[in-house]
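ingest -> validate -> predict -> emit
validate: passed (alphabet ok, no gaps, 257 aa)
predict: started
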Amino acid sequence: MSVYTTEIASDKIASDNPIHQRLLKAYYLAEDYVKGDLFEIGCGEGRGITLLKDKCDSYTAIDKIKEVIDQLTAEYPDVKFIQDNIPPLNKIEDNSFDVIISFQVIEHIKNDRLYLEEIRRVLKPGGKALITTPNIKKTLTRNPWHIREYKAGELEALAKSIFSKVDMKGVAGNEKVMEYYEMNKKSVQKITRFDVLNLQYRLPAPLLRIPYDILNRVNRNKLKTSNDSLVNQIHHTDYILSDNADESLDLFCIMEK
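emit:
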């Protein structure tokens, strides 16, 4: 079973490569922080498990989809997997982990404050949590799979109301990545110009999900056809950690208990 919609991206679909590499970058950035007992919230199909599991003493991961958890359990017998809906983290005790990672999750969570409070609760004193989420300033259309998206200052303010230390950074792209981004932006604008009634923001999100996925897939395939070499060549090394979160593609928030 696959959990991938076009907004998540797959490493198995060539036209998804620029987005897959962008999402994968967060795990490479996490390498410098991983130690001790590691907890991943919202592991999906396990994009970064192979990269990080041997860099910590223990790896625990949680996700809501049972079929995916069952598959990962068979694939990674040295990792502990938990199936549950979050928040709260009902199956996790206080002060359990040295490091927590949760990438591209908070935008799906209705109660984002509880989500961050639960992360803080299960962190050990002095532990760090790393989260990523799209920067709404770089979002091209409404994503009906997201409850909300954040500006850098908004997420930073929320995190600072819960954690003792917060460092807001971003995941930005080099010239190659931004060439793709501008191509994508122009292509999306050609589609959204027909939305003269602004339905993408007026209709309930569930009604938009199927057309969003269809149009997103068509658009990614079109971009690959128009510049196949660029789409294929983008690598996680083309994404960089930036101190300018406000202008980055994704927000990368580092929080300490």
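The first helix runs from residue 17 to 30.
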